[in-house]
Write a structure and sequence with these properties.
The N and C termini lie far apart (42 Å). The chain is of the alpha/beta class. It binds S-adenosylmethionine. This is tRNA (Adenine-N(1)-)-methyltransferase TrmK.
Length: 237
Amino acid sequence: QLSERLQAVSRHVPRGAKLADIGSDHAYLPVYLLEHGVIERAIAGEINDGPLLSAMENIQANGFTDHIQVKKGSGLAVLLNETDIDTVTIAGMGGPLITAILNDGQEHLSTIKRLILQPNVAADRIRQWLYSEGWDLISEEILEEEGHIYEILVAEPGTGTAAYSNVESEFKKELWLGPILIQEKHSAFQKKWKWEYEQLKRIEESLNEAKDKNTVSERLADVDQKITWLKEVFHYE
Ligand code: SAM
């Protein structure tokens, strides 16, 4: 049984897609998508030998060796000399690592029509990159599974600005929280940010107690800004 998290990722993969799943580990996602007749073929990219082997074994066990090719390599480098791949999934990593993979492999993204990214933390880093590089967010999702909250960002080539409200004062807040998630206010979204709010209040308190105010002033301003944004969005007291 595929995790809820990866099932949610799978629902954003277009029918007939030719997929590259980067950091595929056991290749659970491409195997599931092929089993359900969603994709035509896939590359399962892996940097490490252990997960690479697990991917090979799982693909073989499911009889998909003709349709899922396992490639060893870092990030999008596995797309070298591949001309038909149109969809990329990168799931289960931190936002900074996903952003680095996208940024380092930009030359391999020219044929890609959709990115489906599932950061475990720091989704804002990815949003910033997508915005700067002209990828429009077309969908955002948030879900909770076994006590963890996950975000899914789906992007397609465009101007980068599409999902944002175009109100300058709102931009950084939307980037941080997610321009689509902020509209929907899903229960997992409320839970995540309530927890973050409590953390920020605690940090604010300890920064306020610091003896040397100069050394903490920048950090305090950042924390205060975030507290203000969360109050605006959730109307906390
Ligand atoms: N994508 C699967 C999922 O969502 O369940 C596996 C996530 S697992 C936590 C992260 C995988 O990414 C590991 O198998 C790791 O070896 C691989 N990985 C980490 N950095 C990578 C990179 N730069 N290129 C390719 N794979 C990478």
